[in-house]
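Demo today. Your pick:
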Amino acid sequence: MSGSLPVAVSVTELLAEISRLEPEPGVARLAAFDADGTLWQGDVGLALFEAAVARRALRSDAATELARALFACGETPSTDLHRNARRLLELYRDDRFGEREVCAMMAWCFAGWAQGELCALAREVLALAGHPGALYEGHRELMAGLRARGIEVLVASGSPRAMVEEACRPFDIPARLVFAMTPELGADGRLLPRMTAPLPYRDGKVEAIRLATGGLRPLVAFGDSQGDLPMLEDAQLAVAVAARPAVLDVARSAPARWRVLSVARTESGHPVIAPGVDRMVV
């Protein structure tokens, strides 16, 4: 797409601009963030899934739905549910299983787990991945600056809810403001192999935010991938963070309402390089 990217801004410059921003009619004083690739480096949902498959920690409660998903892709399931789960991820990488569907699968595949068990695994996986060192440098200051200006912070993510809640703890984001892939709960309090709506992917992110705000749009939204585009385009001001090509193409088309936030490194000092592909799970 033709056109130049909006000028890159620092956290300080962005906060100064937001201070001057008057909410349009129907806009809440709310900042909506994606999580993976926007708040931190890496995909926490994929990390949780790969750890569970490697440890053979998935349970038989997910077996039937995993097999059904493979049948729908024209595949014959094996008797090994972990092999079936891994195969669905491979099919996604081969463009034979949808992105929304693979994100949901990496949440409902934990059917049979209790919430507390999954949160404990999430904490362990995050620690092994070096979290919170993977947080983008300057983002804690960004969150504090938004709140100081009376702007509430919300997260909408396509990763499993337990993982996103744990990863967001350094930002002091309450669970009520985290919208992520959330399986239904059974009467026994264990996860079921089906999802609650809306699924926070693409238009589902907009739906989740509108439900949280009583139908209002966010003042500002932050994202990096095509799964964030409806949320970004719904906001009064859109901010691309370490963004993928599809997001940068849209930013070029409307530079007046887009900003590009400069992110050089993580809190642990690793350089942040924007991915050159649009696929979220690689």
Summary: Residues 175 and 239 are 23 Å apart (CA to CA).
